[in-house]
Design brief:
Blueprint lengths: L1 H59 L21 E3 L44 E3 L16 H26 L10 H25 L7 H27 L14 H25 L2
Antiparallel strand pairs: 1-2
Helix pairs in contact: 1-2, 3-4, 3-5, 4-5
Length: about 280
Amino acid sequence: MSTFSEYAALARQLADQRRETDQDAAAEAGRRHALHASADQLAQRLAGQSQRLGHLGRALGLPDDPPPGPSGDHPGPAVPASIVSGPGPSGGRSGGAPGAGAVVDGGAAAAPGRSGVGAYPPGTAGGALVALPTAAGVPAPRAGGVDPVAELTEARRLADEADRLFQVTEAVARHPPLLPTWSPLSRALAVYAGCAAAGILLALVMLKAAGLGLGAGVLYTATCAGLPVLSFVAGYLVLGRWGRPVLGGDAPQPRFVPLGFVTCVLLVPLAQCGYLVLVRLTP
């Protein structure tokens, strides 16, 4: 009777342990499924950011990524490896033909998988260790005990930071490089006024050079007609070159042609007339 009681107690204990094991397995499967779903979502998000970055690079005129090599892989940088060989099974260096993951004397470890990829196992057969260089901004690979939840959280945080930087970059790229905080009308007026001021200075130089034999008709024609038109054309070209945003610059941008023409045509002759009147009135 005691044997049957012990058997029943052991059976119940075994059933409880099996139930707990099944629950743990189901929880682990759910956790893995959630991690895979989060990783897939993050991968899609990173793919979108890559397309966004490529669009920004093309808008800024940056060169595209280098074309893939003959094997379809992107050429990776040469990875120098410092190899420390441990004792083999016989107490010396591990011998034999170098295979996948073997260490060649004076060289680098032959990494299994694709060639040109700078990812080597932390250790190889025979106790060899490969020291990997750490690129700028890229964390070094951890030896072990990596928490996937923490890694996904960190990757999501970096993706959020990248989205924020994308928004800042796009906001800056949607403004023209010339006077980006000004309104289009104020920018155009400032550009045309600056070009008119340059024309006025050139007109004053020409008036000063009148005593060098320059005819009065040519002088007045150049200062009253040629320089205003030149100032207007210069302002128009400056607005077309530096008054367009990098993103969305394909759409026609207002250059306020009537305003620019009137500004340049009025300012240059008026300034010249004012200078001549001042010279006449000054004893």
